[in-house]
Structures are given as structure tokens and as C-alpha cells.
Batch of 2 targets.
Target 1
Amino acid sequence: MDDRKIKLLQALEYNHRISVSTLATMLNLTEKEVNDLIKEMEDVKIIQGYVTLIDWEKAGHNNNVTALIDVKITPQRDVGFDVIAERICRFPEVTSVYLMSGGYDLSVMVEGTSLKQVAFFVSEKLAIMENVQSTATHFVLKKYKQNGIVFNDDKKDHRLVITP
Amino acid sequence: MTRFVNKKIAQMPYSGIRKFFDLAGGMKGVISLGVGEPDFITPWHICEAGIYSLEKGYTNYTSNCGLEELRREISRYLLRRYGLHYDYVNEIVVTVGASEAIDIALRCVLEPGDEVIIPEPCFVSYKPCAAMAGGVVKTIATRESDSFKLRPEDLEKAITPRSKVLLLCYPNNPTGAVMTEKELQSIAEVAAKYDLLVIADEIYSELTYEGEHVSFASLPGMKERTVLINGFSKSFAMTGWRIGYAAAPAEIAAAMLKIHQYTVMCAPIMGQMAAIEALKNGEGEIKKMVLLYNQRRSLIVNGLNRAGLPCFEPKGAFYAFPSIKATGMSSQEFCEKLLKEEKVAVVPGDAFGECGEGYIRCSYAASTEQIVEALSRIEKFVERHAKRQRAVYAVR
């Protein structure tokens, strides 16, 4: 892959709000090049999207309930787990889906506005799907770290202002 | 009670950056590009090794020259990274930071009146350490037009019958200059011709952005006349742990060890334990940090140039060293005004030697956001003062 693209992705990975002109200066590219490369990578879905990581609790607006669900599945001939995983992905309350090694097959993360709503999703939508053998639902009690970012991290710079 | 203080020490000036430290220390909202240490905290697996050593009850002295396992890892590292062969038994001394290594290296080789040749601009402690060790300092001014590299002809000119030591620091603090193998080779030839001992402070060796760092001791015939100094502060973001080391011919290492054992006994054991972990498993972390430094390097160099402060391209360390001559201000004046008016802290170039006058040192061990903000303040500052300068000329 183009070296410029790798550099651009590395710079964007943890901060996509960095301005095009800053990116261009950092990577010794022109602004047009940066724009074109980003556009191109968005088009071919190398860049899948941009999200904002929010501590809803701190915002005082924490009505959401998150659950991690271990799902066991009977794989299907020819397509394995893919078809059923894709079907699960279509539910908007599902925020991520991973195929796992070990004791179960899919790890499904679900977000809802109440315990009840999540429980309803599991019992009425997920567990009854064909090929789903069993589910085990774990509710998240507190988020400490997500996507490499520690919530409530003390980012204070402890260094002296000037040192040799 | 100044009558008790030794005259030589009493006359020795404080480091040139102290004034700025006092000035900036009390101010709020300062963006500092004045810090000579990484903005990363020590990688967690290394911290954990230090914590674990405490939990296990490693709170004792170590052998004077450092833990055997650490010296063995240092020896392996020097071989792996720079192709150097050092015997961990009698050629490596673990010190309290590279700073101590510089001090004891100078003290164990200098006789009163011996000359120490130091290319400038350079780290603030070289000259005082050489003077305290009884040496006579001969500085060589390096120039921006030579990318702040030491020229062999300048070195040869500075040599007298009393010349004994050449102190080299590449990648350089404060300029960010590096020297290639070929350029170092030409210095090596002069060192051999005049039988100089070379103290090579290579503390920034891992922070080399173009090409590979060449250790002075790896040049043909140089190991026997080199004291190699390195450490963990810059490469592994471990400044506060105070662990450095010297690798030198056995006779010199033994002499250094004498001073070391009588003054500090040994480097702190938890730092040594952490350093072992750093060498065993830390190279991936170095790569990540170097990647980020390199992005910021382009950002700051291009930004300074755009702000009207021409900046030669630093190839190592984490400093940019732009010229401020066009502003008509002295380095001290520029830095004081910049701090007071725009709350950006940088270090005046003359703190690193007379030939640093007309330059400032900007550290890019700071976050991208801080660098962008600092650059915009610097640009405003330069623009405003350029106007004033034009106005002054117009009145004249």
C-alpha cells in the first residue's frame, strides 16, 4: 500500500478532527493530496467511518444500557457463520459483532435505553433466530476504557516547564 | 556564608535556562516547547517491572557497576542495534542517568589543565562538568550552514598539545543535527592523528529519523579511544528513573567505577529492574514514539518556516532550532517577550553556547494540538514584531 496512505491513517487513527492543513504539514503532503487520499480511502472503505467517543455518564445523560452477549451458533453449510452474523448486524441496537474463538461463537454488543429493552431484544429477536443455540447476556456496569481511551484519565503534564 | 563556597563553584554561572524556568514557572496557560524530555510517560510494561521489583522486595544496593542482568542486556542491545562488542563484565558501568556518566568520564581522564574540546551549541552540563573536573574547555562553533555538524578542519584547528578529550553529541541537543558515518569517519581520523579520547554522548541515538544512527565507537579503531554514553531517558521516556550507562575500554571503565562507587554507590535498583524490561521488550514502544515524533517534526519545522523563522531540518532528537535573526531581537529578548506576550515557552539558543545566539530551541515533545497552537502564537508574535521593526526603520 502507498506509504502516504499508511502515514495518513496512522495520523488519523486516534484523532480524525485534525485539520487537513495540519495533516498536510505533518506529512509533507499538499492539502489536495490529503483530501484526495482521504476521499479515496473513504470510497474503498479503508476508512469505515468516524465516531465520537462520548462519556455519556459525565454528560448527565446516561439512559443507555450496554450488554455483551455470547452467542453460540450452528454454522451453516458453505457460509459458516457469515449469514447469521450479518443478519445480527442489521439490528440498529447492535453496536458490534465479532466472531470469536473459544467457548462461544459470536460476541454481540447491544445498546438499549433500558434493561428491559435489551432483554426484549435478546429473548424476542436474537435467541429465537434459527441456528442460534444459546445466548449468555452480560450487562456492562461501568466503562473504564474504550477504543484505547481511558475515561477520566488524568492527562496532566507533570514535567517542569523548562528543562535542559 | 559565601566565604565557605569554593571560588570555582561560586564563579560558575547558573545554567542559562534557569532564568526562564523561574519566569515561566509562575505563569498560567503557558504552552511549553521548552522541555528537554519526552511528553510520553514511561511505557506501562516498563513501569510495571519497576513496581513488581518493589513488590518482590528489591530495595537493596546492587553491585557498583549495576545489575549483571542489566549489563548483559545493555551489551546485547549495543551489539544488536549498533554492532558494538562490549563485555558486560568489565566494560559497562550503569550510572545515575547519562549525566553522571558524562561527569565521571571527564573526572577519571582529566589532569589539571588538560583541554576538552566541545562543539557548540551543546547540552548545558558539558562545560561546567569539564571545568569542575579540572579541564580547560575549548569550544568549537558549529554553523547552520554546515547543518550544525562538526567539521574536521575546525576540530584540527582547535587542537593544541594539551588537547585530550573531544566531547561529541549526535543526535544533538539543542540543534537536532546528526552526523553520517562518513562525516564521523573524518572526525575519527583527526581523533586518531592527535590521540584524542572521544566521549560520545549518544543519548538520542534511538530518535534518528532518516537513516540509521552510527555509533562513534563502531568506526574502525575507535572503540579503544571512545567512552560511549547512552541511557534510557529519551529512548524509553524514562527521564525520572535516572538510569544511564557508559561503555568504555576496561581500564577507563574501571577508573569510572572508582568514582562512581565512592560518590553514588550504585544506580537505584528499581530503575535498573525497569531498564531490563525496557531492553528486553521495549523496542516496539520506541517505534511508536519515533513515529509520532517524526510527524511532529515535520509539523514544527514547516510551521516555523511559515512563521518566518527559518529552520534547518533536524534529523534527530526532538528539537527544532530555528533562526530568529530576522526579527532583530537577541535570543534572550525574543524568548522573554514570547513568553510574556504569547505565553509560549522556548529556550534561548545562547543557553547552549555563544554560537547559539540568534536561535531558539523548540522541543516537539508536545502534543500535536499544543504544537499547532504554539505555532500560531509564534506566527502572530513574529508578524507583530516584524511590523514594529518596519515602523522603527520608517521613522529613522
Note: DSSP finds five helices and six strands in chain A.
Target 2
Amino acid sequence: MKRRKNLMWYFRKYKFDLFLALPGILLLVIFYVAPVIAVFFVSFTRWPIIGAPKWIGLKNYQMLMSDRIFFKSLLNTLYYAALIVPSLTIFSFILALILRAITKGREFFKAVFVFPMVVTLVSTATIWKGLFLPFGPINAVLEFLGLPTVQFLSAEHVKNSLSFILIWRDVGYFSIFYLAGFEQIPTEIIDAAKVDGANALQRFTYIIWPMMRPIVVLVSILSTIGSFMIFTLVYVTTRGGPAYSSEALLNYIYDVGWKEFRMGYAAAAAVVYFVILFLLNSFQRLVFSRE
Amino acid sequence: MFRKSLVLLSILLFLLTIGFGKTLQFWATPFVSQPEKFFEPLVKQFKAETGIDVEISVVSYADAVTKIQAAIAAGEAPDLVALSEGRFMPLVRFGNALYELDEFVTDDLLKRVVRPQLLDQYRQIAGGKLYVFPICFWTYLGAINLDIFKKAGVPEEFIEKMTDPNKYYTWDDLLQLGAMVTKDYNGDGKVDHWLYAYPGGENWVHPFLLWYWNAGGSPTLLDENGKPAFNTEATIRALKFLLTLKEKGYMPPGVESLSAGDAIDMFTSGKTAFINNVWPSNAFVVWPKQFKNLNFRLVYPPVGPTGLRTTYFGSYLLAIPRQSKMKREAWKFIEFLLRPESQKYISANTYYSSITGDVPDEFKGDPRVKMYMEVVKYAIPEPMHPAMARWKMIYNSETQAVLSGQKTPEEAAKTMQKLAEQALEFYK
Amino acid sequence: MSRKSRWVVYSFAIFWLIMVFFPFVWAFRISLIPTYTTYVSFFPRSLSELSLVNYKYLLYQTKFPRWLLNSLIVSGTATFLNTIACFMLGYVLARKRLPGSDWIFTMVLALMMVPYQITIISLYLGLSKVGLTNNLLGLILPMSAHPFGVFLMRQYILMIPKDYEEAALIDGSTRFQALFRIVLPQTLPAIGVLLVSMLIETWNNFILPLVIITKTSLKTVTVGVADLAFEILNTNWGVLMAGSLLGALPTIIIFVIFNKYFLKGLTLQGGIK
């Protein structure tokens, strides 16, 4: 009885706050928290969607361990991340330096550089697929310049080509983050350092870097998450080919889940993916937040 | 105010999406380039006669089975679906998703079907029951670009070998042709035309099978013991031949990632001189209209190293999902499509062969139609094994691996066999 | 800055400008070709080579207009709901009136690190069990709250002093009035940012509509464009390019109009962490 009274009292006291908070909390719990937990449960079952799930314990994980294509797509995904994340972190920094040096028309160039990010990725991917055709416009330009042509979507180059699209798309977007960071560094400090005779390297290591580091962390984490957008790119351009050389893990999960209807197996792959992501993220934070 | 109107608007639109009325949901695969437009007159007439409307949704061949399964899982299956030989067995085997048509089929109708052995095949694989009914069928021919042949100085007798039903050409002839055709014509140091583009980047059923069957491969993809027949002489011969074409430079660069559409684009834009998968609607309707400068001629399929002549046989199969609440109405529409007038309309607009033999009069004297009918006798229907979807992925990706130089034909054949057998585990 | 280095900076900026726009210009050129090919010279010899036939095809003979409408409904509604939910929750978390606010905020932070794509399996299974597949609601609801939105709102409201609110309460207005008359107007810049970035995010969403929608008439424009390539047997690049450009147009228009808000939002994010 007493406890119930407390609950009512609690409810009455925070009526307004609860009313404000509940829609958001409910939506987050239903569509973010619950699916994450559910994926773990599904991964222990065999579930061809039609019919009820059957508990099969760790069997999905055992099968994963001997699945060649799973490992290939896992390696591909890591390759994508290893190429995209550092490139984005570095090139968007450079682009931000350029934006900072632009005095006339900076707002215009900012808008231009962010532009690819605004275009739907599906459209971008479709267009780049056309640009990458064996006799497409890029090869025409290369030929015109007397350079050897490149098969952008061949097994050898396909991962780099797809990564390039994502880098091309996001680099301007992330450079704005850095630019915002630069604007927070008071110019007086830098000027004072100059007067004190600090050279460019010293100014960078002692003033700019410490102030920019949180943004570098932010950009590297956001671009890690962004590199999973590769799913859409692969789906639209190559569907994983040639010979699984561009297949990303999410594409494999999609294929297994929705083409073969092995939801439990796909969930197991998703869980492994999740664990790897979690480790990667923690690693990133550890590296950058070390004092 | 603005917000209120937004909410109102969205509620209104939700109601719209739910929709009312008696409408058959028909999921059509794109056997012609605009299925909705193609079926429009038929649907109109059907509605005028029966009062039943048919709503057509185009579902790509690649996604057809997936989407049907997903819809069944969600309890909202369409009333009528278009499938192909390779695609209906998974639906029959898993979840028993299709409805038996035997109760609808009348003897009268059966008598009108020109290829009754087809129906027998569909029954045989599905344990004696009929789950699909064809409304038309087609075969593939090859085609050559006459302008390139002329420019390359290919002797007339070669063309004769390819187009005369009493003569034949072999894989060696193709290699010879490759040497003649693949050249730098304008002297800029770059090759201008190639022989053939294999659509290596596409996950289609037929490109690999055309060569595999031609090399003596099993029509059903199974050996006499009922096991997958991938680690065979035929696979290795086919892959070796494709690799030779690639290595000798008779195929344009980048074929291992070329989609089927792009490979056809290579032929229609005059980059390649030979193509081996020309279906009738392309030869009769699309190409003459879209590519007025393309001077092409249909040719027979080549004769393979074991002396076999083969090509692909496909049909447009309709099936009724068990979940449908309008099965009788759906069958009515199938019956409507099998009427002589509808069949004539279908043939006249797609040039696919009528399943009841009702063709427009102007077809009778057309030598090209004759060619297509000629190859029917050695055309092989798509394998119907329930594991086809998986097998298709396996043989296509291994062929990609060979074409991109990652594996030898022997290794690829071995991997195909291993993976194909593994895949069977799941289909038990 | 010396003249030389200025020259370098501007020439690089212009180089990247060309890199950014070249694909779209090329796509536009291809979309004006009436036949099924990409093999044409970039510069047309005469105006008669160009035609709007692909756009006409898309608008009159496919369900493209319907896909656009679906995307507008989904993005519009989801963004609207999202902004309200995030604003309200963000406010509560910022003012910490509710016990456990910090605990909830930690959850929000953790969720920001989970790529939602991973949950697509259970999301799909759940939605199909309650009959929300092949239903635009099934697309709208999962996108109606975004951890990032909550985070942004909370951080922004933290910067707004409590004094005005408290003064209003003393003057006898209800908390509801205080929230909507005092706090909301001050949060408008962040709300603008959230609206624009969520509109772009929801418009871009691909995997969710891909798995949830199978009916042609319910597809969103992203899935519709991706499927165009597979729905036509002979790849018709003209139609594909026309579709890609038309499908991207709404977000481009919004960006061109509101780009100041959007860029400011990015700056805000950069400043917050």
C-alpha cells in the first residue's frame, strides 16, 4: 500500500516532466534499446521469418566461424574503415585549413564543400557507378590526358573506388567541424606565441593540437560510424562483387537475412559486428583521450 | 496553424495509402521494359468484363523471391506473382507458399497448350502438383554487329556459318573471329572493337549457364546421382574458354564487374561484335527503336567442344500465393491472359512465343521468328532446384574470381562444388 | 598571407569545387540523352540531341511522383515528431528535474555510438509482427526520435539561463507556458539545425525502407531510384540519372535555402564536444 502511494506521489510531483520526457524515452527504448537487446536473442535461434523461432544455442556462431564469406566481408569492412577514417580525419583537416585561409567567399565555399553530403547517397552512388564504367567519363579524361585507364570496379580496385566516393562525399562536411574548432582558438594566443618566437611546429603542438584534439576524436568517431554507410554504396554499385571483393559485413547480413531468410544467422553476424565496433570505438577513445 | 495542417495532411495521406476496393495485386517481373504499360490494355479489358481491377507492381527478377517471402511473412502476400523456372521451387519448398493450380486447370485449357511437356516438368519437380502456369516463353539467339564484321574484313562464309541453320560454328571459330575483330582500327594505339563482353559483375542465372551447357554441362545442374555437377569437365572448359577470351584481349577490360545491362550496352553501342543472349523483345522491339544505327543480325548459338548445340529457354510463369484471398479472381486473370486474343497481344508486343500457339499473322513469314522457333528444340529451361538462388550466387562469384585472375578454372570448379554441396545442407 | 599562397589556396578550392560538381553536371548531361547509352560526347553538337524524354518517362510512366510524395510524408512527419520529442526530452534532461536524468542521458550518449543499421534485423522482425511492414508508419516511427537530437537539444538548453523561466513562474504562468513562451523561442536556432539535419538524414535513410517496404507504391525515393537500375532489363542510364537528380532535388533545395542554419548546426556540433 505504502509503495503504491509513493508511486502516485511521484507521478503527481513529476507529472509535467514525465509528460515531456516520456514520448522521447519510449521511442528511444522501443526503436533503439529494445532492438539492440533483441538482436542478441535472435542470434541464438533459427528463424526463417515464416513460423516461430527455434532456439539452437551457439550453433549460429559455430557456423560463422567456418564461413569464408563472412570473414571476407568482415575483412573488407575493416579495410573500408581503415581507409576511410584516417583519410577523412586528415583530408578534412587540410580542407579546413584551406577554408580558413579563404577570406573572400568563405561562406560560399563552405556551402559548396558540404554539398555532396546533402545529395542522397543513393543518387550519388548511382552517378558514380556511371562515372566508373570501363568506358565511362573518368577513363575518357584519363585517356585524354594520355594516362592509362583504370578498371575502377575490378576486384583489385573496387574497395578503393567505393571508399573514394564516401571520402569525396564527407570530407567537406567534416572540415566544417574543424573550422568551428579553429574559430574557438583565440587569435591573440597564437599572436602572442608568435611574438615569443614559437615556430609553426611548436605553435601546432602546444596550442592548436590540444584545442583541436576533442574535434579530431569527434571526427574520427563520426567517420567510423559514417564508414558503415558503405552498405548503400555497395548495394547500389556492385552488390558485393566481383567475387565478394567489395562485400561489406552489413551487405552480407542483408543477403543472408533477406535473400536466404536466415535471420538468426544474420543476427549472429550482427552481434559479432557490434562487438568489433564497440572495441574499435573504445580503442579510438583510449588513444585520443590519453593524457 | 502550420503544424496543425501538417498533422492533418499526414493523416489524410495515411488513409490514402490504405486504399479501398476490389483489386488484384499482381507483382510482375520486368520481362519487357515497362510491364505496367504493357499490361495496361489487358487490365482495362479485364476490368470492363469482370469489374476486377489489377494493380501491377514491378518487382525486379533479382528481388522477386525475397520480396514475395517477406510479404508472406508479414501476412500481406499479393494475389498473383510472376516467377521463372529457377524461382518458384524455393517458395513451394519453404512455407508451402504457393497454391496448387490443378483444381482450376481444365482439360480444355490443357489441350490448347502447345508445349504440354513443360507443365509436366513443373509438376515433376514439385511432387506431382502444378504451382505455376506459363503465359509465354522465349529462347535466346546470338547476334553480330555487321558493321564491325565488314570493317574487320570477316569473310562472308563466316557469317553464313553463323546464320545458316544447316551449318555451324564452334568455339574455335569464335577465337578466330576474336583475332579478326579485336583490332585498333583508327591507328591511335588503342583497341576499338572487341569480340564479346561477358557480364561478369551481374548475378544473373543465364550468362554462365549458356557456356556451361554449351560445354556439355548438365541441364539440371545435377549429376546422375542427384548431386550438384559443378566440379566437372564442362565447368572447367567453359571457364577456360572465358578466361582465354579475356587473356587474349577479345573481351573489353573490366568485364568481371560489368552488369548484364552494361554488357548489352557494349554490343548496342558498337564496342563488341558478338553477343550470345539476345531475347526476342530486344531483337524485335527495343534495339530497332533505340539504336537506329546498330546494324545487327541474329545468329544461331555456337556448337560447343562436345558437339552440342544449346541455348536458354525461359518462360513467364504466374503463380497464386496461398495467402491470397482472391485466388479465384487471380486465376480468372490468368485464364484471361491465355485467351487467343490476349496471347496474340502478348506475342505482337513482346515477340515472345505464345504458349497456346496463337500468334499474329505477320509472324508467319518472319525469318527471325523462324530462327527463334528453330532453337526451341535444343533450348534448356532454367534449372528448377530449390537451391538455385544460392547456386547462382556461387557460380557467378566463382566465375568473377576466375575472370579477375584470383583463381584458376580448376580451383573455381572445386570451390563451386564444395559450396554448392554445403548450400544443400540448408535446403534439406 | 602572401600572394603566392593565396593563389595556391584559391586554386585548390576551385579544383575541389569542380570535383564536387562534375559528377552532377555529367549526370545532368546523361539524363538529357534520349537513348539507352552513356557513350556520348560530353558537349552536345546541337540542342536537338537533348531531350527531356527521361524526365517525362519518370514522371508519367513510373511511380516516381508517388515515391517523392512518400519520401516527403515520411521525412516531414518523422522530422516534425523527432524535433518535438527531442526538444521535450532534451529540456527535461538539461534541467534535471526528473530523478535519473543523468542516467537517461548516459543511455542517450551510449545509443549515439550504436549504428542503428545493426539493429535492422530485430527492428524488421518487430515491425513485421505488429503489421507495420509495408506501411509508412513503420518508417516514420523508428525515425521519430534520434539520440543525437536529444543530445543536441540538451546541450543547447543547458546554455540557456534558468532565470527567465523562474521569473515567469513567479509571475504566475504555468510551467507549460514558461516552456513554450520562454524556452522554445530561445531554442529556435538549435531547433532549426535539428530540423534541417534530420530532414536530410531521414530523406537519406536507405536500409530501413529497403527492408520494410515491398510494395512499389509505398517505396521512398531512395529505394525507388536504387531499384530503377534493376527494374529495367537494358540499363537505361538516362532514366537512372534523371531519377538520381530528381530524387536528390528536395534536399538540395532545402540546403540551398537553409544552408546557413545547416552550417551553423555543424559549427555547433563541433563546438559542443
Note: The first helix of chain C runs from residue 3 to 31.
